[in-house]
Amino acid sequence: MKKLTLLIILISAVSFSQYTVHGTMTPAIKSDWVILYKIEGARQKFVQNSKIKIDSVSSQGTKQAIGRFNFTLPKDTPVGAYRVTYKLEGAGFVDFIFNKENVSFGFHPDYPNQSIIFSESKENIFYRNYLIAIAKAQQTLDSLQVTALRNPNLNVKTKYKTAYNKVNSIQKKYLEGANGMYVQPFVKASFRTSSPELIDTPQKYMSNMITTFFDRMDFNNKTLMNSSFLIDRITDYVFYINYSDDADMQQKLLKQSVKTVLNKVKNINFKKDVIEFLIGQFEDSKNLELIDYLFEKHYNNLPEKVQNKKFKEEKLALLAAEIGRVAPDFSWKENGKTLKLSTLNDAQNYILVFWSTGCSHCLREIPQLHNYLKGNSKIKVIAFSLETNDFSWKKLKQDLSNWHHVLGLNKWENKTARTYNILSTPSYFVLDANKKIIAKPDAFKDVKAFVEKL
User: Fold this and answer.
1) pLDDT at position 89
2) Which residues face 326 on adjacent strands?
3) In 238-254, which positions are buried (b, 16+ CB within 10 angstroms) versus exposed (e)?
4) In a domain? residue 210
5) Confidence at residue 91, expressed as pLDDT on a 0 to 100 scale
6) What's the whole-model pTM score?
7) Fewer CB within 10 A of the end CB, N or C, for the chain?
8) How many CB atoms lie within 10 A of CB 219?
9) What is the spatial distance between Cα 188 and Cα 172, in angstroms, rounded to a whole number?
10) Which residues pair with 107 in a beta bridge?
11) Is residue 41 part of a domain?
12) By residue range, what is the domain housing residue 21?
């Protein structure tokens, strides 16, 4: 009897020494795995992965595939924000809070954030209910404000005041209800600062939104820092709230919004992560001006021990040959003389083309380029041939007169080719007289189209 009692106690202890995370996606997608990460600001830390089990269920006479997955978390799993990723691109993840309790949720895989419903987890159910309630009330308030801006003669002041009071009432109710819960900082930070009175112009409305956007957010709160919350809000503020149709003004607004955000971040390590995140976002749009601004005005001002020199070197190297940059310099021997790209002065524009005698596309396009530019004294071609030896190159270059010819041995491992991030041949770069890259055409037809606009 004592042994049986001991066994029951042990089984009970084991059952309470771990937690489960259960997810259901409807319908299932063509994927057999999910990955669980712990979110740490702009970073994700791998926790574990799991298989998706596909079940077929009948609903109203039709069968539908449902995907289910489970994670088992040990007792010492840290409290915090977690993410389940089920596909690498697009809306392919769901976020949740773990605070020493089982978590169960269902969602549609194509729009997870809008469709997620928690069936187990006090923290997540509470926060989700809050987001739904406050969003609905805020939408009513915003609709009345927009109505007033579009129709100034309509009297909606009373309705607006009622809606304003309701928003504040909901916020107060949930903030008090969240007392002692892990999600309380999220509830506090999610509340927008709305004007207690109707605003009479769109300009004042946008100004109020911009100046009050971060009022409720504590950038020093560790709970918020160790989640995607602040990063998501920073993304909204920098890339969506501050917008102009004018390209020059847009750049100014981006710089100002970045400065505003980074001035609020006091934690040095988090600031580093935010800067690296923003650089990654601007890298996607090839916004070199903002990348340079982030490095020169912010990243370089971080303590040296915090900076990731490898990150900086890799990013700058990756963007060294993008449109807007001065083409990375290199030298070569030609007719017994040493020439440098940076000091060439025999044309108004240059076409730098990386090609290879072993490339069938090159053998078709390079002669076309040569014939097309015959007699054009304003454009000079620098033909950089990536080869393992000079045998074929010596022969073929003879048919390409009036060009600068550069032999790049070691082919793909050639230092200059790597600097220019050459992944295929032919690769074209159009340069101005100062060797600034002004275009990167994909093929000969694109080169021709661009040249005709010069």
Assistant:
1) 74
2) 436
3) beeebeeeeeeeeeebb
4) no
5) 72
6) 0.83
7) N
8) 21
9) 9
10) 25
11) yes
12) 2-120
